[in-house]
Design the sequence.
């Protein structure tokens, strides 16, 4: 059965870096893995070392344009089959995992019909994998539209600030408001130091948030970011990579 894990959090917390490190570690464990970039900023491909990727947004724009033409060139075309074929063309097959990029939000007009088609296709696609890792937007936009319907584990990444934890709390509340089919919700504190560790544990307890991991401030990540080196190339002995392995164990992966 597929395990779907979504990572979210406010900008600047290292959300995409955490997603990339999870993908890196899980891709080495012999699982059939799908990485989904559901953030409109599409930073995940670069963090993983992928370039010039196509997006589902492009495929949706194409189909929406066909649907809204006064005189479609192919009025009898199977629209679901067209969208499905384009999505399978978009999937990047990388060593150890596949990558799918959602891309930009919709343009003008109603995309309800296209989104309904996409939901069914995503349901079938996700079922083909052992694990799906989703780098999601902080606003949970794709979840509110139910394009990706079932989430087993939602991980909110926060930094050492109270504002970051408040964002995690608001996301928790938003999930309840959306009545989404999301299982457990966890928090990962990122860029943790010896001086703020105890404070972060206390803050999570006060806000009744489940802390599943605390990733230390890792100078190797900072160095790789400055040099533009993909996080996929980080060494196994980096403090961040070691903590990611602990988180994977806690998630039962």
Sequence:
């Amino acid at each position: 059965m597929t395990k779907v894990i979504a990572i979210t959090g406010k900008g600047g917390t290292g959300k995409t870096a955490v997603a990339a490190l999870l993908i890196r570690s899980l891709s080495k464990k012999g699982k059939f893995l799908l990485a989904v970039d559901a953030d409109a900023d599409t930073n995940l491909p670069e963090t993983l070392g992928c370039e010039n990727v196509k997006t589902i947004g492009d495929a949706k724009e194409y189909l929406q344009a066909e649907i809204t033409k006064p005189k479609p060139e192919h009025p009898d075309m199977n629209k679901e089959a067209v969208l499905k074929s384009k999505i399978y063309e978009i999937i990047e097959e990388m060593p150890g995992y596949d990558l799918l990029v959602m891309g930009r939000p919709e343009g003008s007009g109603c995309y309800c019909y296209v989104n309904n088609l996409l939901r069914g296709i995503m349901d079938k696609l996700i079922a083909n994998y052992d694990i799906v890792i989703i780098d999601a937007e902080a606003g949970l936009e794709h979840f509110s539209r139910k394009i990706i319907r079932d989430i087993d584990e939602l991980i909110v990444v926060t930094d050492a600030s109270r504002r970051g934890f408040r964002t995690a709390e608001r996301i928790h509340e938003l999930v309840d408001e959306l009545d989404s089919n999301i299982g457990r919700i966890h928090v990962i504190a990122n860029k943790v130091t010896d001086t703020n560790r105890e404070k972060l544990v206390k803050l999570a307890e006060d806000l009744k948030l489940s802390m599943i991991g605390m990733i230390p401030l890792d100078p190797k990540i900072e160095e790789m970011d400055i040099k533009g080196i993909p996080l996929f190339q980080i060494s196994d002995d980096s403090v961040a990579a070691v903590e990611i392995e602990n988180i994977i164990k806690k998630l039962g992966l």
